[in-house]
Structure prediction request, 91 residues.
Amino acid sequence: MDENEGQAGAVVGGVNGGPGAPGVETLGYEQARAELAEVVARLEAGGLSLEESLALWERGERLADVCQAWLDGARQRLDAALRGEQQTGTG
Prediction:
């Protein structure tokens, strides 16, 4: 690992994750959303190297994907529940 990779890992490691941390896929919606907000705040604050910014951006993209998957799953469950109510004649 070169010096730049260490810096990027340190920055991402400071945002509830990093090379040794569990993947974002294991996070719940609230956890992923909170970490995504932290990533955005750090990127907006600036002062990071290009490598650090890219590492945070990439983690943010993964976190956003996790949040979207949770929302999609919730929508599917809601739609299925509504279809079930319509089929039984309630609602």
Summary: The longest helix spans residues 50-88.
